[in-house]
Specification:
Elements lengths: L1 E2 L12 E14 L2 E7 L4 E7 H4 L1 H9 L5 E10 L7 E12 L13 H6 L1 H4 L3 H23 L3 E2 L5 E2 L11 E4 L2 E5 L4 H11 L1 E9 L12 E10 L3 H22 L1 H6 L5 H4 L7 E3 H10 L12 H9 L5 E4 L12 E2 L2 E5 L1 E6 L4 E9 L3 H10 L8 H8 L5 E7 H9 L20
Parallel strand pairs: 1-2, 4-6, 7-11, 13-14
Antiparallel strand pairs: 2-3, 2-5, 3-4, 5-6, 8-10, 9-10, 11-12, 12-19, 14-17, 15-16, 17-18, 18-19
Helix pairs in contact: 5-7, 5-14
The chain binds one RNA strand through strand 2, strand 3, strand 4, helix 3 and strand 12.
RNA sequence: UGAGCGGUAGAUCAACAGGUAGAUCGCCUGGCUGUUAACCAGGAGGGUGCAAGUUCGAACCCUGCCCGCUCAGCCA
C-alpha cells in the first residue's frame, strides 16, 4: 500500500492508499464517521462505515480525541461533498497514539491562551499557511539575491558594541567582558561587501525595546543586502525589484495558503514597479494636508506612517530624511547638509515600514565627525573606519524585516503570528 | 515606560439597579448511512486574578497588588 501525501490525493483517484497524520476534526452520523485527517500537506476527509471497518475499529475511531496520530487506509474517491473534492473510503486504520483532551478546540480562543500553546497552535490550518508563506518568502529572497549576483555572508550575533548606538540592546556576559546581541549586520556587511562587491546577511536580530505593539518583536529576522558602487537611486531601484519579485513568488506558489488566510490577493497583484517615491519633505506636506500636527525635522510616528502608507496602492519609498533622526553612517545629501541619503519603504494597508536603508558615507573625515556627534566611542569603530582608509567607495544597502513582510503578505493583524515562536516583552515561553 | 480596556467552568463569553453564577465548544452517555466549526437528548465540571475592606448580602462598590490586551514612544 502506497503512503501518500494528502496534497497528492487527486493523483491517486481509484487507488487504495495509506495516509499518515493527525485527527483534525471528526463528525459522526450513526454508522458513518467523517474523519478529517491532516498530514502537514493538507487535510483529507476519510469516511468510515461501520459495516466496512467492523465494530471494533469503528468504535475505537469513534472514541479518538482531536490530534490523535493514526494511519488510514482506503480507496481514493472523487466526491463533490468532500471539502477537498476527494475523500478516502476507509478500509482500515492503525491508531498510533490516542491523544488526551486537546486544548485547542475548533472554536475561538484568546491570544494569550493560543500563545501559551504556541507549540500546538502551529498545527492549526491558518498557522500552517502562515509558516508556508514565510518559507516561500525566504526562498524567494535567497533566489532573487543569488540570481542578482549577491553572495550570502552572514554576520555575527554576538557583538562587542552597539551597531548604531541608538536602540537598547540585550546585554550578556561574554567570558570576562560584556557583549550584546546584534541589532543589525549592517556594519559587518560593509566589510564583507568590500570583499565581494554585493553581499547579504540573513539572520535574527534583537532589540531590547519595551515595545508592545503589533509591529514589534524582541527577536526578528532581517535580510540585509549591501552593494558597493551603488548610490541612493540604485538602492531604491533594487528595493523595488526585490519586493516585486518576492511578492510575485508568494502569489505564484501560495495561492492555497492565501485562500486559507482569506487574504484579498488583489491587493498584492498590483505590486509592480515603479513604486511611488516621495521625499521626506513632501511627506511632511502630505501629513500637514492630512491634518496631522507635524513639524519638519521629527521622525514619523505610527499614525503618520499609516497615513503615508495608506495613501498609495503600492509600497511607497520615502527618501531623504533629516540626518538627525537617522543612523550616524548615513551619507549627507550634497544639496542639503541637514538631510541624509536614506530611504524607508512603507507597505500599503497600514503594515508600516518594511525596509530601511540608504547610502553609507565613504568619507573617513565625515564618519569621525558623526561618531563624535552621536557620542559613540571611537575605539569600537576603528575596524569600521579602516573600511574608509583602504579603498573607500560609495555604497548602499538596506534591511527588510521578515515578520513584517510576512504579516503584510498574509494580511495578519499581528506580527506575533508570523514567526514560529515569537519573542516579545515578558513573553519567552514556550 | 505611559494611557485606555479587561481578568467569571479546560476554552469563548453572559449575569437587570449589589440578592447568592449561566450558555456554547470540548469531555462523558445515548440516538442518527453524507456530515461540512454536523445535529438531537442527557450528564460531569467553576464560586468569579490575588489580598484587604464596605454591606444583612459582593463577580458586580472602594483600596492595593499581579497578569493580559490595545494604542503610544522606539524601530524592521
Amino acid at each position: 500500500m502506497a503512503n501518500v501525501s494528502i496534497k497528492d490525493l487527486g493523483k491517486h483517484a481509484g487507488e487504495e492508499v495509506t495516509l499518515r497524520g493527525w485527527l483534525y476534526n471528526k463528525r459522526h452520523k450513526g454508522k458513518l464517521q467523517f474523519i478529517l485527517l491532516r498530514d502537514g500537506s493538507g487535510t483529507a476527509q476519510c469516511v468510515a462505515f461501520r459495516g466496512n471497518v467492523g465494530d471494533e475499529l469503528f468504535d475505537r475511531l469513534d472514541r479518538l480525541g482531536q490530534e490523535s496520530s493514526l494511519t488510514v487506509t482506503g480507496t481514493v474517491k472523487e466526491d463533490k461533498r468532500s471539502p477537498g473534492g476527494y475523500e478516502i473510503d476507509v478500509t482500515g486504520a492503525e491508531i498510533i497514539q490516542e491523544s488526551g483532551e486537546y486544548p485547542i478546540t475548533p472554536k475561538e480562543h484568546g491570544v494569550d491562551f493560543l500563545l501559551r500553546h504556541r507549540h500546538l497552535w502551529l498545527r492549526s490550518n491558518k498557522q500552517v499557511a502562515v509558516m508556508r508563506i514565510r518559507d516561500r518568502l525566504v526562498r524567494a529572497i535567497r533566489e532573487f539575491l543569488a540570481d542578482d549576483g549577491f553572495i550570502n555572508v552572514d554576520t555575527p550575533i554576538f557583538t562587542p558594541a552597539a551597531c548604531e548606538g541608538t536602540t537598547t540592546l540585550f546585554e550578556l556576559k561574554y567570558f570576562d567582558e560584556m557583549a550584546y546581541l546584534t541589532q543589525s549586520g549592517q556594519l559587518y556587511n560593509e566589510a564583507t561587501a568590500m570583499a565581494h562587491g554585493k553581499v547579504y546577511c540573513f539572520g535574527p536580530t534583537f532589540r531590547a525595546e519595551r515595545s508592545k505593539t503589533r509591529k514589534h518583536l524582541t527577536e526578528f529576522w532581517m535580510v540585509e543586502p549591501e552593494v558597493m558602487f551603488a548610490d541612493l537611486d540604485d538602492i531604491m531601484e533594487l528595493t523595488e525589484r526585490f519586493v516585486t519579485a518576492i511578492v510575485k513568488e508568494v502569489l505564484e506558489h501560495c495561492r492555497g495558503e492565501l485562500e486559507v488566510l482569506e487574504r484579498d490577493v488583489s491587493k498584492l497583484e498590483g505590486i509592480e514597479p515603479p513604486f511611488p517615491r516621495i521625499s521626506y519633505t513632501d511627506a511632511v506636506g502630505m501629513l500637514k494636508k492630512g491634518g496631522h500636527n507635524f513639524e519638519w525635522g521629527g521622525d514619523f510616528g505610527a499614525p503618520d506612517e499609516t497615513l503615508i502608507g495608506e495613501s498609495f496602492e503600492r509600497p511607497v519609498l520615502v527618501h531623504r530624511y533629516p540626518k538627525a533622526v537617522k543612523a550616524f553612517y548615513m551619507e549627507p545629501d550634497p544639496d542639503d547638509e541637514r538631510i541624509a541619503l536614506c530611504v524607508d519603504m512603507i507597505a500599503p494597508e497600514g503594515y508600516g515600514e518594511i525596509i530601511g536603508g540608504g547610502q553609507r558615507t565613504a568619507s573617513l573625515e565625515y564618519l569621525e565627525k558623526q561618531i563624535d556627534a552621536h557620542g559613540l566611542p571611537h575605539e569600537a569603530f576603528e575596524w569600521y573606519k579602516d573600511l574608509r582608509r583602504y579603498g573607500s567607495v560609495y555604497h548602499s544597502g538596506f534591511g527588510l524585516g521578515i515578520e513584517r513582510t510576512v504579516a503584510w503578505l498574509c494580511g495578519s493583524k499581528h506580527i506575533r503570528e508570523c514567526t514560529a515562536f515569537p519573542r516579545m516583552l515578558y513573553k519567552i515561553y514556550p
